[in-house]
Amino acid sequence: MSSTESCVMMDESPKLTPKDFASSQQARWCPGCGDHSVWVQVRKVLADAGVRPERTVFVSGIGCSSRFPYYMNTYGFHTLHGRAPTVASGLKLARPDLDVWIVTGDGDALSIGGNHLIHVIRRNLDVNILLLNNRIYGLTKGQYSPTSEHGKRTKSSPAGTIEWPITPAALALGAGATFVARTVDMDVQHLGAMVERATKHRGTAFIEVYQSCPTFNTESHEAVTDKKARSENLVYLEHGRPLTFGGDPADLKGIRLRNYAPEVVRLADVPTDDLLVHDESVASPALAFMLSQMSNPDFPEPVGVLRAVERPTLDDETYQQIERETGRQGPGDMQAVLTGPESWQITG
Amino acid sequence: MSSTESCVMMDESPKLTPKDFASSQQARWCPGCGDHSVWVQVRKVLADAGVRPERTVFVSGIGCSSRFPYYMNTYGFHTLHGRAPTVASGLKLARPDLDVWIVTGDGDALSIGGNHLIHVIRRNLDVNILLLNNRIYGLTKGQYSPTSEHGKRTKSSPAGTIEWPITPAALALGAGATFVARTVDMDVQHLGAMVERATKHRGTAFIEVYQSCPTFNTESHEAVTDKKARSENLVYLEHGRPLTFGGDPADLKGIRLRNYAPEVVRLADVPTDDLLVHDESVASPALAFMLSQMSNPDFPEPVGVLRAVERPTLDDETYQQIERETGRQGPGDMQAVLTGPESWQITG
Amino acid sequence: MITSGNNGGGQGKPRTPLQTVTIRFAGDSGDGMQLTGGQFSDACAIAGNDIATLPDFPSEIRAPVGTVAGVSGFQLQFASRDVQTPGDEIDVLVAMNPAALKVSLARLKPDGLIIVNEDSFNAKELAKADLPADCLDGALLKGYTLYRVPMTRLTQQAVADLGVGAKEADRCKNMFALGLVCWLFDRPTASTEQFIRSKFAKKPQLVEANLKVLGAGHQYGESAELFTHRYTIDQAPQSPGTYRKITGNQAAALGLVAAAQLAGKKLFYGSYPITPASEILHELSRLKNFGVVTFQAEDEIAAMGATVGAAFGGHLAATGTSGPGMALKSEMIGLAVMAELPVVIVNVQRGGPSTGLPTKTEQSDLHQAIFGRHGESPVVVLAAASPGDCFEATLEAARIAIRYMVPVVVLSDSYLAQGAEPWRVPDFSTLAPIPVTHPTDPATFKPYQRNEELARPWAIPGTPGLMHRLGGLEKQDVTGQVSHDPANHEKMVRLRAAKVAGVKLQGPGLLWSGPDRGELLVVGWGGTCGAIRTAVSRLADEGVTVSHCHLRAINPLPADLGERLKRFDRVLVVEGNLGQLRGLLRDRYLVDAAGFNRIQGQPLAVGDIARAIRETLKLRLTAEGANK
Amino acid sequence: MITSGNNGGGQGKPRTPLQTVTIRFAGDSGDGMQLTGGQFSDACAIAGNDIATLPDFPSEIRAPVGTVAGVSGFQLQFASRDVQTPGDEIDVLVAMNPAALKVSLARLKPDGLIIVNEDSFNAKELAKADLPADCLDGALLKGYTLYRVPMTRLTQQAVADLGVGAKEADRCKNMFALGLVCWLFDRPTASTEQFIRSKFAKKPQLVEANLKVLGAGHQYGESAELFTHRYTIDQAPQSPGTYRKITGNQAAALGLVAAAQLAGKKLFYGSYPITPASEILHELSRLKNFGVVTFQAEDEIAAMGATVGAAFGGHLAATGTSGPGMALKSEMIGLAVMAELPVVIVNVQRGGPSTGLPTKTEQSDLHQAIFGRHGESPVVVLAAASPGDCFEATLEAARIAIRYMVPVVVLSDSYLAQGAEPWRVPDFSTLAPIPVTHPTDPATFKPYQRNEELARPWAIPGTPGLMHRLGGLEKQDVTGQVSHDPANHEKMVRLRAAKVAGVKLQGPGLLWSGPDRGELLVVGWGGTCGAIRTAVSRLADEGVTVSHCHLRAINPLPADLGERLKRFDRVLVVEGNLGQLRGLLRDRYLVDAAGFNRIQGQPLAVGDIARAIRETLKLRLTAEGANK
Ligand SMILES: Cc1ncc(C[n+]2csc(CCOP(=O)(O)OP(=O)(O)O)c2C)c(N)n1
Ligand SMILES: Cc1ncc(C[n+]2csc(CCOP(=O)(O)OP(=O)(O)O)c2C)c(N)n1
Ligand code: SF4
Ligand code: SF4
Ligand SMILES: [Mg+2]
Ligand SMILES: [Mg+2]
Fold first, then answer.
1. Domains of chain C
2. pLDDT interval class at C8 (50, 70, 90)
3. Is the pLDDT of residue D244 over 70?
4. What is the H or E stretch that residue A291 is in?
5. Confidence band (pLDDT; 50, 70, 90) for C62?
6. Residue A233: CB partners within 8 Å, gap ≥ 6?
């Protein structure tokens, strides 16, 4: 019944390839769009995991990113702007045997859909969420989004936005997320690894992908476009490993805690033992939250699994409760329920 | 123009009393409802601060708590379920000279209205939000809410809820809140102090009030009903002071940090210097977030100001931008804009 | 003949037989009037009377104790004949305090009977209700028969030796009133006794207290000199069978579960609480042992989205709400239209616009149901005609939704939802199954290939080889791929419209009474059925013959409706709105339908409808006279 | 006489004068066709032609390069006479690639002229478009006049010595096409040159490149032997004044700012981006120096809520969206109805239902605008008749909103919003001010006391002594307190309805052409105005006289509309939906109006309308014949 099982369970059928997960439709994203890369990795992970396409459903909202389901040879539902989590919730609650994915954008998930996002996370429904964050409204041709940088000039903010960007990972943690990861479209291996981790998590797996939109938002992605930039601007989290980063192997850096606050130090100056060691599975989300607050240019931004803990899922509890109540009351007797506790007879 | 100024600024007019802030309508909350207490304190604070009722607007959604504006002799708007932040946003952006308050409930703010809540907070609009959290839907007569305890039996969860409660303060911090406080309806002095702090904060001031609903949710409030229970189950935060609590003066306790995690210690065993010292104004919200995660029964729940920092407000920036653009382009010339950059003449 | 239920004792005082009685229990919100009314309704129903009830709680939150705003009322009509409404005017008023007396007087019959709790008519309480000190003796109550019963005192006496607290004792006084009224109308108290026993199962002291007080009330009637005689109301003629009392919301919940069972499906119900629809969620959340999945969503949009998702997953999926929630659902209903998924949407209407009168009844969401979406977005709209009919209507809705792969809206209203009537329990084994097929053959499957009834196939995830993508973008005919082709769009718009236009009900699309041609046809829909039917039969008693056509299907309208309308000289559409159905009929059939419209948050009064009919007929005569 | 704009050079080849030309620029999404078309429209407008344009981009995201799905088109009609539509059929097609040729051919006139970028007709591109290798020579293009121009190569040549990269050079080829077409029709290139200079101000190299290519295209026409003659289109007769080209969205934005100025108010515009309404937000966000506050909300509900809040605060408050956003706003519009606050809601309609055809035009949100809320929730509904009329319509909407304290919906559509026409710039100083009063006297102020026009006072926060509470619960008449009183509810429902029913426009509620009585009246509303008008005048040229009534006010309908309709034997309602206005007219006036309905995501074609009119007239004759 759990998605994890159906992910790892091998079917009799022959092993599928990433190609088998592509629908007949040609992907309609701009050349160079990061969505392509996510699409490739997701298919790869699904094929590798031996998932059956017919047991997999991609649900999306509206946006460039939300075209995703059309290009997958699985079941799919391109729903309404912001509403993918709602449709996915009904689907997964009705059919806990299915693997349900939500693909969404920064506008879709965080602007119009913010409430559904936090509620699906709070309920810990066993679905995987891929948030493709290009910090712009792509489909509607370039307005700022809730993740756009303060001051950014866009079609709807010609003099610069005056809104403050939200940090998706922080919001997810604030809503009680059991799994939060972050990755980058251009780092396909890491991206693939994160997607795979999501398939293994029971409960809501939330992955933010830094996604490039070469058409409407060239700048936002500069910090992570190439490997060099990434190693300077990102810190790759690994469970049980100290936080280190840096583009120059001769001058690696690390993160240390000081008075409950992170601090960038040079490895040359500080013993490795002093560095913050990542623990994705600690019970409190406070550490993950602290990491989520590290941002350029003062800090490298953490990518990897920020948090991964276990908590009963809504779908499991739904069916456990049904079982429990059925055990307690016996299976429903329709005639008895129609008649109710208080009835009387009229005879002819 | 700022709400702070108009709050502290004394008008020529005679000083008003809390009574002057009560409308002619009798408050229609159940006897013993915590909403009464909030109402009393708010009026007291406003009167003490010398606020003018005509410059003050209370905006609410729908719920018992949202009846609040009707009982205030200020301007008021009882809007739609969940939508108070939206109406308040338009009002405050149009009229930055007004003091705008949002009064809302746990269902109103966190269920249907969750998205508006996080966005008003993210934008740091200069409004004060009072979230009266009774962990139940009062007005609709007792369904569980997003803050109801897991397992709670209510009208819509006769076999116990299977949803996980959200922590309002954590969500607000995840959305980037500049001011987060928590208080208890029964502790009227603390409540009053928090309300007063809110009036002084520039930007979104978010206050969660633990509010009792004797009619539909008797249990939820037990931990904080009397002074004794409060001193065991709550820790009162004070800026610059170590975190201590306890009902038994002979056996006071404190909070210490261990490996980036809070820990309850007996003051008898641990020197005060080792205790966590509260800092509401530290730049990163990580500490406040960690505090927000402390919950009964393992920890005392923190009340007081979790976070209070400064960040430009949406209303200020809106008008600064208007000023800047007016400076740059000159004041708008309607005829010129109608004619546009590209026009031609047809003569008779 | 009644085989269950016993008749309470007391043979002493003389009895007057009556045909029908309308009684109203009124008191402060804390006085337990809803419970009292509900128990008395049970007693009457079990005794074989026909009944119709109207719970009536005015304000949203508890209003100040003792004030007019705080009055809670429960009205019911019980009779030895067919009863269709809770009654326009009150025969008997039980008033627990001055405020209750005050607000109820307006609807009391000139020669009505009043029973008051005399103890509450003290200076303080009278002042709160803004009534004069001598109100029980003064001109106010002239013409009425007044019984002053010191209920508070008698209740306290009754429990004196039980050691219950004063407050708890006081809470029992509604049982005194109930006992007394049961005596007065010779209704059995057995069901109430049983109720008390189970309700306070864990507090034996309260069981005893309540039973004692109930008995004391009954005994008081028999022994006190105040009451000289009592009344009896015979059993109403009812067709044989098992009966229960049912409210519209209970019936709607049962209709949905029954539909799921008949379709061999599990039920998914996604909803967000809202008055007066919440009880459907409450009822269903108790039926987990039927495999029912209830999902209390974060808002109505999410409730609708989840319903659509569950339908995609292959469940029988339904949601319920009231007007404001319908507004929020409208975009998502549009997606269901485009995706052609079977969903049932119950709208329990309340007073609008906006938050309006949330605890009052109204019929003003018809336009919204039919037209309240962007684009050409047709859905099926049905309307329940009585509390019990909410069962049939939701069941019918599920049948249609599945058969045609289409969203179906069921309109109920606050009056139907909370009002109760005796309901003949259907024999479940005789209900027709709902056929469901899910395609499985990849060779022949096309997501938007239609059958003769224009329904597309319901392929569900998990089926090998049938992977396909749904969505809100226009679909290509047959393949279901996204299509921007102009001609295809027109084709699809017309196909969706044709599908809905061609929907056939299993049950009746309209209820008819009276001759099929004549001078005047009264048309109604929804919760006004009982009132119109009663008005029409009252006029028949006066020798005035008019026909009554009550619509259960509103979109599409019954196929023969146009024909039927044309056989009458005049059409009068009776509605609890400003004429929403009337506009539809005028548009569709170009018939010059007149309207009788009342929009006061109350069920329409029989008397008002009868008057409107008389006036319409008179007008017509005058007009004819003028023409001659 | 034209006083600005110069006529491009080239005196050599002979000229053929034409009255009207419909040209379509089509290419891949990356080919810059929208820009090319826009610039050519400017040139024509500046040269004194009347124009109407139709940008036409089919898919939501960039489709695969070179495919049919990726084609972007821009069609315009320019003429020496009045022009009302972008043309049904194309006279001249400029096709930058095979896919563009393929999708555009269907609308090309049998003897049409085609200019192709020959260089793109290689095997790869032809394959992508699924066209035969010999397509330019084969039967496909028989009958057309084909010009094969190696644009890619000529463009590269033109910039060869500028050192621009190959990719950037290639991007200029639309300027070649533009230069050539300007030559062909003798339109000035000055405005384009200026545009290039300002657009690439920061990249002088690109300025030069584009100018060179533009010139090269122009020169090519003159010098290449391919073109033997060119065409001229005289100025269209226009009343004197200052003109500009304007799209509907630009006009709507300007109308709102102008209204604010005329009311002595600041404008608040709260919106959430959605195609095709986003440009209103973009336009207004550039006008901060007018004190305009733009608020990009988190969703449409928030946009509407903020608009209501700003109106409460005393701003002129407006929002704009399209169908799905309207659905989301509906609950909040209901609150504005109850609170009786002045808000303007612009709905730029697109293809529905659901996400539908988001970049296509349609008129299917009329029902939603009028009926799409729960309860009796009347709002004023206006419809703009042309791009420029979006200015008048939003201005009128603001006038009404403020005067009557009521929400006003303005219906625009994708075609009006994005299409352009020459617009006579109004003299702002002559526009009538919008009177606004805010009460200040506590002694006389009552929140819901109405004036003769039933408007309540607009008291704004900050006013001493006028503190009051608004909300969605039913209001007591005059005082505005919460009221559950049944009679008051009915009164208020009817008052709100009466207020809207009594609304009077300052401008015309309908546009009329033709005699005021006769055989057939064609009724339309919104963006079909130009097409109907053209069809009607085309028929007039054929000697067929029909009248045309175009509604700008839809709720309330113009007071004399019923009278007007009755003067015709037959009424034909032309709409881009399945008959939404038609239903209203039938209901209201009991007139047996027929409908001509097309719902293909495209503006209605003149030819189709003319045909429908002819058929209606024919039918009538047949029917009469049959009756005799
Ligand atoms: C109710 C509604 N409002 C607005 C829109 C218009 N809309 C479509 S996608 C989108 C934003 C997309 O941004 P994002 O989610 O970041 O996706 P991206 O295109 O950047 O991948 C908007 C505003 C819509 N389709 N529906
Ligand atoms: C759109 C809409 N959906 C549902 C409702 C019904 N409703 C009114 S208040 C409420 C919940 C109130 O809970 P909360 O915000 O916690 O307030 P409380 O009454 O507990 O103070 C609900 C569901 C409504 N009025 N509008
Ligand atoms: S607009 Fe941006 S996000 Fe959308 S497909 Fe193009 S590159 Fe990707
Ligand atoms: S129901 Fe609860 S929250 Fe509502 S007024 Fe009563 S006690 Fe207060
Ligand atoms: Mg985006
Ligand atoms: Mg609550």
1. 15-233 (3.40.920.10), 244-430 (3.40.50.970), 510-627 (3.40.50.920)
2. very low
3. yes
4. helix A286-292
5. low
6. A223, A224, A296, A300, A301
Determine if the peptide bond prior to D55 is cis (ω within 30°): no
How many Å separate Cα D191 from the centre of its chain?
A: 23
* ipTM, interface predicted TM-score of the complex: 0.95
Judging contacts by C-beta atoms under 8 Å, the chain A residues touching residue B175 are 166, 170-171, 174
Sequential pLDDT tens for chain B (348 residues): 333 334 334 445 678 999 999 999 888 899 899 999 999 999 999 999 999 999 999 999 999 999 999 999 999 999 999 999 999 999 999 999 999 999 999 999 999 999 999 999 999 999 999 999 999 999 999 999 999 999 999 999 999 999 999 999 999 999 999 999 999 999 999 999 999 999 999 999 999 999 999 999 988 888 888 888 999 999 999 999 999 999 888 899 999 998 788 999 999 999 989 999 999 999 999 999 999 999 999 999 999 999 999 999 999 999 999 999 999 999 999 999 999 998 999 886
Does A106 contact ligand 1 (Cβ within 6 A)?
yes
Which ligand 2 atom lies nearest to the CA of residue B139?
19
Mean pLDDT of all residues in A42-52: 96
Q: CB neighbours (10 Å) of residue C485? A: 16
Beta strands (DSSP E) in C329-418 are 343-349, 380-383, 407-413
Q: For chain B, say whether D338 makes contact (Cβ under 8 Å).
A: no
**Buried (b) or exposed (e) across D129-156, using 16+ Cβ within 10 A?**
bebeeebbeeeebeebebbebbbbebbb
User: Residues of B near A (CB-CB distance < 8 A)?
Assistant: 111-115, 118-119, 122-124, 146, 159-160, 162-167, 170-176, 257, 260-261, 282, 284-287, 289-290, 293, 311-312, 314, 317-318, 321, 324-325
How many CB pairs below 8 A link A and B?
A: 131
Flag if B140 and C278 touch (Cβ within 8 Å).
Answer: yes
In angstroms and rounded to an integer, the radius of gyration of the C-alpha atoms of chain B is: 23
Nearest CA to ligand 3 atom 8: A33
Residue C349 neighbours by CB under 8 Å, 6+ apart: C322, C323, C361, C362, C363, C364, C365, C411, C412, C413, C414, C526, D374
For A83, nearest residue in chain D (alpha carbons): D299
Query: From the CA of C350, how far away is ligand 2's center (Å)?
Result: 15
Pocket test for ligand 3, best of A65, A131, A134, A154 (most atoms within 8 A of CB): A134
Give per-residue pLDDT as tens, B184-232. 999 999 999 999 999 999 999 999 999 999 999 988 888 888 888 999 9
D588: which chain C residues are within 8 Å (Cβ-Cβ)?
Answer: 586
- D204-242 exposure pattern, b = at least 16 Cβ within 10 A, e = fewer: eebbbbbbbbbbbbbbbbbeeeebeebbebeebeeeebb
CA of B215 to the centre of ligand 4 (A): 6
- State the pLDDT at residue B266: 96
Count of CB contacts below 8 A, A vs C? 221
For chain A, give every domain's residue range. Answer: 15-240+278-338, 242-277
Taking only residues 233 to 272 of chain C, the set having a beta carbon closer than 8 angstroms to any beta carbon of chain B reads 272
Count CB-CB contacts under 10 A for residue A9. Answer: 12
CA D54 to the chain's CA centroid:
9
Please tell me the distance from the alpha carbon of residue C260 to that of residue B30, in angstroms, as a whole number: 40
pLDDT at D3: 29
Are the beta carbons of B196 and B45 closer than 8 angstroms?
yes
Distance B67 CA to ligand 2 centre (A): 11
Given a cut of 80, whether residue D9 has pLDDT beyond it is no
Find chains touching chain C: ≥3 CB pairs under 8 Å: A, B, D
Q: Tell me which fold the domain A15-240+278-338 belongs to.
A: Rossmann fold (3.40.50)
Q: Which residues of A touch C301 (CB under 8 A)?
A: 83, 86, 116
